[in-house]
Write a structure and sequence with these properties.
The chain contains no helices and 11 strands. It is mainly β.
C-alpha cells in the first residue's frame, strides 16, 4: 500500500516561493499520474496541478505561470514549485496518487501573508 507524505509547507510573504515535496513509500508511483490539491478554510478542496506518468503537466487557471509540478521517479517523489505566492494561495496542500486505488497524503500547510 503506497503512502504519501507531503513536506515543505510554511509561512511566506506574498511574492515569495515555496517548494512542496510528496514522497511515496510502500510502493512505486512510476506508472501513476499524480496530483496536488489544496483546501482553504471554509472552501472545497480544489485541484491545483496534475502530472502524468510521462511528465505532462496540467494546471488550474489560478496558478498557471506561477506553479510548476514535476516528478523524480528515481526518488519516488513529486514536487510543486510555487512562485509569486499570493495570500489567496493559503491552504492545506495535499498530493494524491491517481488510479484505481487513490491515495492521499496528510497535507502540508501553506500560509502566505500580505
Amino acid at each position: 500500500q503506497v503512502q504519501l507524505v507531503e513536506s515543505g509547507g510554511g509561512l511566506v510573504q506574498a511574492g515569495g516561493s515555496l517548494r512542496l515535496s510528496c514522497a511515496a513509500s510502500g510502493g512505486i508511483i512510476l506508472f501513476n499520474s499524480m496530483a496536488w490539491y489544496r483546501q482553504a478554510p471554509g472552501k472545497q478542496r480544489e485541484l491545483v496541478a496534475t502530472i502524468s506518468s510521462v511528465g505532462g503537466p496540467t494546471y488550474a487557471d489560478s496558478v498557471k505561470g506561477r506553479f510548476t509540478i514535476s516528478r523524480d521517479n528515481a526518488k519516488n517523489t513529486v514536487y510543486l514549485q510555487m512562485n509569486s505566492l499570493k495570500p489567496e494561495d493559503t491552504a492545506v496542500y495535499y498530493c494524491k496518487k491517481i488510479g484505481a486505488l487513490e491515495v492521499w497524503g496528510q497535507g502540508t500547510q501553506v500560509t502566505v501573508s500580505s
